[in-house]
Amino acid sequence: MTIPFDFADRLKIPLIAAPMFLVSNPKMTIAACRAGVIGSYPAHSTRTREIFAQWLLETEAALAAAENAGEKPAPYAVNLVVHPSNARMEGDLELVIKHKVPIVLTSKGAPDDVFKMIHDYGGVAFHDVASARHAEKAVEAGADALIAVAGGAGGHCGTINPFALVSEIKRVTDKPIILAGGLTNGQDLLAAEAMGAAMAYMGTRFIATEESLAPREYCDALIAGKATDIFLSAALDGAPANWYAPSLVKAGIDLDELAVTRPGKIVTSDGQSKQRYKGIWSAGHGIGATTEVVPVRALCEQLIGEYQSARRGLLQQLD
Ligand SMILES: Cc1cc2nc3c(=O)[nH]c(=O)nc-3n(C[C@H](O)[C@H](O)[C@H](O)COP(=O)(O)O)c2cc1C
Prior knowledge:
The protein is of the alpha/beta class and 319 residues long. The protein contains eleven helices and eleven strands. The chain has helices spanning 26-34, 49-68, 89-98, 112-120, 132-141, 162-172, 186-194, 216-224, 245-250, 255-259, 296-318, and strands spanning 15-17, 39-42, 76-81, 103-107, 124-129, 145-149, 155-156, 177-180, 199-202, 230-233, 241-244. The two termini are 19 Å apart. It binds flavin mononucleotide. Flavin mononucleotide is lined by residues 18-21, 23, 42, 79, 107, 128, 149, 152-155, 180-183, 201-205, 282-284, 286.
C-alpha cells in the first residue's frame, strides 16, 4: 500500500467508500472511518445547507470521540459538485472550508480557485474524471489525485475499460489515481494497486449496509441482481449512468426506447421528471457481490481480510 498522503497510516486498506446520492450518510461514513476505510457522502444528498451542516457536525463529533477513546480513524470525505450548475455550491463550499473537511471529492468543472481554497485550509481535493483529457484539465487546475471512473461503475459512470483508462491517465500525469468501477472485494483492491492506482473506490458494494439510506427493496434488488441486469443509458438524466434494468421496466420505462435514445434526450415513464427516480435503482457491474445486508464495519473487516489474504497469496505465487 503506497498512498502518497499524510493520512496513509490511518488506512487499513487503500479504499474510499464512495459517495452515493440518497445512499451515503454520516452513519455509514463514521463506521467506515472507524474501521480504517475512508468514508464519504455527497453534500447534495442533504435537502438543505442546514442539514449538510448537521451532517458535518455529527461526523466530526463522532470521529473526535473515537480519537479521544484511543482509536485512529481514517479521515472522512465529502463530495462537492464544483460547477456553476450546482446552485448550492457556494454555500456548501463555505461549510467545507469552515469545517476543514480533510478530503473533498470534487465532480464536474475542476475550477482552480476551488482547489486553492481547499488547499488553503489544509484539505486535499480528489477530482472525478472519465478520460485522460478530463485528467489533464483537473491536474492543471490543481487537483491532488484523480478518481478514474471507469466503465461498469454505479451511478454516473465512465465508459472506458479500467485498464485503458488508467494507462491513458498515467501517460498524461503522475498524480495518484483512485480507480472506480466494479471493484467489490480485497483482491480487486490489490489488482487496482497492481495496475498503478494508489487507492480505489467502492460504491455499489456499500449500498446494502445497515447504516445506508437505501430502502430494503433496493437492497433486495441488489441481492437478486447480476451484472447482466445492469443497463447503461444517458437518457434518464443526460449523463451516462448504470441502472438496474428490472427497476426501469417496473417503472414503465421502455428499454428498447432507452437503447436507441441519443444522449441528451430524456426518456421518462410518465413525462414527469420529478417522478423519474422513484423506484429506479442505480448499481454498477459489481452488483453480484451483494448477498446480504451487513453492517459497514463487518463489510470493511471482510474487505481488509480479503485484501491481506490476496497479498499473501500473490507474494507466495511470485516467490
Ligand atoms: C446509487 C449511487 C449514487 C451515486 N451518487 C454519486 C454522487 O452523488 N456523487 C458522486 O461523485 N458519485 C456518485 N456515485 C458514484 C460513486 O461515487 C462511485 O463512483 C461508483 O459507485 C463506483 O463504482 P461501483 O459502484 O461499481 O463501485 C453514485 C453511485 C451509486 C451506485
